[in-house]
Fold this protein.
Amino acid sequence: MGGLTPSQVVPRNFQDLSRRRTARARALATRYPASREALEFCAEIAAFQQQAVEAASHPDIESCLNFREALCNLVREKGSQVLKQAAESLDESACREALYAYVEQVDTTSARSFFARVLLQPRVIFQGAGNPSHIDNRCPHCGHPPQVGVLRPEANGAALTLVCSLCLSEWPFPRSQCAACGERDEKQLAYYSPEQMAHLQTQTCDTCQRYLHHIDLSKELAAVPDVDEIAALPLDVWALERGFQKLHPNLVGI
Ligand SMILES: [Zn+2]
Ligand SMILES: [Zn+2]
């Protein structure tokens, strides 16, 4: 079976990252009532992942299974109806199957894949910034699609990086290009940013009908990209109503 090589499994800064994600999700839940439920669930998941890392002795896929039951219990208590239902049929062998299906990108979007992503994520946070010359719409470390873009101020405007939907690695990507299909024609690309969420921006592509949220760090330095992406729920509604599809669903399934 395919899987993660030992050099890829470095939960080095995961504790710190988890604390930041949990605190940020709670802060944003107060600020954005429309996304509150999703953000509160995100905070629970980030806190759960932190505990799972602290208790882990062998950082491999099989050890993820040790936390299956605790995650199912958390979902039974706080999860959506869809996730609760998926938890009911997630025995050990189903969970193992889901973990490998996620790693191999056979299933990264179903309700069952949620459990795999939560369990895998603490084990795939990689060291280093990756290969800076890598220009691709797939993560240079694990090959998974991006979750969100991050804009950082630079001499001539802003530089974009993409954040991996699984291992949260970042890599550079051209700012005016669709991260789903590679479209560069600016007439095909559009941007939307509501006034009350100025640091969040949605890039839509008329060629492939996909969209991706960008987080502008120049407007909100404290942002934690994958968490702020969940706060962008009203932008998801905006994009979906216009017939666009998200490049990849986030941790809470939006
Ligand atoms: Zn990755
Ligand atoms: Zn596109």
